[in-house]
């Protein structure tokens, strides 16, 4: 069943239930009110008949045994005159004494239960609904008691045909059923139309998405509906998703191309050297040594690159980080010691060194800081300086490496953290860098819920920093300090 049909069905079923409840409620309320009216009428008529008899319809007669007996002057019933009601007077043994003329020649006997009525039942009486000759009749029987004497001298039965009540209830039922049927029909039609209208944007969205899948063109976007509603949000989300997918595919394609390109260069160099050796280079000791040195350099470069790629792949695959307490000041000192042998004419020093401990993966943090340090030493000419610092700022630990080196052009700043990016293709090729060092720094910072920044001026040096939240809280991650550095 289509979603549209299901929506229509659910809507109609709920509406039908509401109608049923409302219909039943109305029917029973009206029925109750009508029967209460009938009861009131019967009670009023009963009081009237009793008043008539109390006013003189009872005659005390002494029996031959000397006992005082009350006799009814039955003709008094004729005084009661209501065309809608039939009044009957019975003896206590159930024999009909007299009735109002509108009874005609129909028979309306006393219900047997009424013979059990005692003087205490004067107020309530006994009510019954019967069908006589195809007509429903409600009767109220009450005992006739002489005031001051607790003796039942007769029974009064007031009856009323329920034709008008039945008619009213019949008309009401017919109206409720036909009205509900029409309302349900209209609701079903309306729900189908509304569901169709509501689902049209989804149909369009599906068609466009299908078109994108068929054309295998992730650059296409779904047209955003003009109204600010759920569909607009859905479309925007799908477009964002497409953009992200496109981005991922492009990155992946570029990544594969870059990796093959990067691998080709050292491999080609090694192949060249092997050919030199093959063509008699082995006999020339100087040539052979040169070729071996070359090949060693290239294999070293390959190993470095493969290691870097492995590290990146691991952080991409969200391999679990070790979560240990890391004393960042000790880490800075350790990195400083490892960098010192590489300094060669560059003044390496430690600047600010706050005592900060965070939770994280010590090895990866060290690798990231080493990458920054090696870069700084590499791009700083002799006589320049490189400063490692550790500061606690705005809820973050900031590990920074500042140098007075060659700097980076402003246009390139935003890209330096991208994979295989080299700010100036010519200057880093000879150093053997594959453009992966900074992407590792970025991934390590992000894996710790932090981020990496760079501030640099061409010819005036650069400052790279890793910002790590002291307590990993989502709002802390959002609340990044704003300065002129480039955030990645
Ligand atoms: P590589 O392995 O080539 O050094 P990185 O990802 O570490 O790759 O760096 C990317 C590029 O950013 C480098 O090629 C270099 O041009 C530039 N770069 C990195 N650090 C510095 C720095 N301290 N000073 C100037 N340029 C730098």
UniProtKB/TrEMBL annotation:
EC number: 2.7.13.3
Predominant cellular place of this UniProt entry's protein: membrane
Localization per record: Membrane
Histidine kinase domain ranges (all copies): 258-472
Root EC class: transferase
Catalyzed reactions: ATP + protein L-histidine = ADP + protein N-phospho-L-histidine
Domain of life where this protein originates: Bacteria
UniProt keyword list: Kinase, Membrane, Phosphoprotein, Transferase, Transmembrane, Transmembrane helix, Two-component regulatory system
Pfam family, one: HATPase_c
The keyword Transmembrane appears for this protein: yes
Chain ranges passing through the membrane: 7-30
Tagged with keyword Transmembrane helix: yes
PANTHER family, per the entry: SENSOR HISTIDINE KINASE TRCS (PTHR45436:SF5), SENSOR HISTIDINE KINASE YKOH (PTHR45436)
Name assigned to this protein: histidine kinase
Species whose genome carries this gene: Candidatus Chloroploca mongolica
């Amino acid at each position: 069943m289509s979603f549209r049909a299901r929506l229509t069905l659910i809507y109609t079923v709920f509406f039908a239930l509401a109608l049923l409840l409302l219909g039943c409620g109305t029917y029973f309320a009206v029925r109750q009110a009508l029967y209460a009216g009938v009861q009131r009428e019967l009670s009023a008529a009963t009081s009237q008949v009793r008043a008539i008899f109390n006013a003189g319809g009872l005659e005390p007669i002494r029996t031959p045994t000397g006992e005082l007996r009350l006799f009814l002057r039955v003709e008094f019933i004729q005084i009661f005159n209501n065309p809608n009601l039939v009044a009957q007077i019975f003896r206590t043994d159930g024999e009909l004494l007299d009735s109002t003329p509108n009874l005609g020649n129909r028979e309306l006997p006393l219900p047997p239960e009424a013979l059990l009525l005692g003087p205490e039942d004067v107020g309530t009486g006994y009510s019954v609904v019967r069908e006589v000759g195809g007509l429903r009749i409600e009767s109220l029987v009450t005992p006739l008691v002489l005031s001051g004497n607790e003796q039942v001298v007769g029974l009064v039965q007031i009856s009323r045909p329920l034709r008008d009540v039945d008619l009213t209830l019949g008309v009401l039922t017919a109206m409720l059923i036909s009205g509900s049927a029409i309302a349900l029909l209209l609701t079903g039609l309306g729900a189908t139309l509304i569901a169709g209208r509501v689902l049209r944007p989804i149909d369009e969205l599906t068609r466009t998405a299908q078109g994108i899948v068929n054309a295998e063109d992730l650059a296409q976007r779904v047209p955003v509906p003009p109204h600010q509603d759920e569909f607009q949000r859905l479309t925007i989300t799908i477009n964002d998703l497409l953009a992200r997918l496109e981005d991922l595919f492009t990155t992946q394609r570029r990544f594969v191309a870059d990796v093959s390109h990067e691998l080709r260069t050292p491999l080609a160099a090694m192949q060249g050297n092997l050919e030199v050796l093959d063509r008699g280079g082995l006999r020339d000791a100087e040539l052979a040594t040169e070729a071996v040195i070359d090949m060693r350099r290239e294999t070293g470069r390959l190993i470095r690159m493969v290691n870097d790629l492995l590290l990146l792949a691991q952080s991409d695959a969200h391999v679990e980080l070790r979560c240990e307490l890391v004393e960042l000041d000790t880490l800075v000192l350790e990195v400083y010691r490892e960098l010192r042998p590489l300094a060669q004419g560059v003044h390496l020093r430690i600047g600010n060194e706050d005592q900060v401990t965070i939770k994280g993966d010590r090895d990866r943090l060290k690798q990231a800081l080493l990458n920054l340090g090696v870069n700084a030493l590499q791009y700083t000419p002799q006589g320049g300086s490189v400063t490692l610092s550790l500061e606690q700022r705005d809820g973050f630990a900031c590990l920074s490496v500042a140098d007075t080196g060659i700097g980076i052009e402003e246009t390139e700043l935003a890209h330096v953290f991208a994979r295989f990016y080299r700010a100036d293709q010519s200057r880093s090729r000879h150093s053997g860098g594959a453009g992966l060092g900074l992407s590792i720094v970025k991934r390590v910072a992000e894996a710790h819920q932090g981020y990496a920044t760079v501030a640099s001026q061409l010819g005036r040096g650069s400052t790279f920093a890793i910002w790590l939240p002291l307590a990993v809280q989502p709002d802390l991650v959002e609340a990044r300090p704003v300065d002129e550095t480039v955030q990645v």
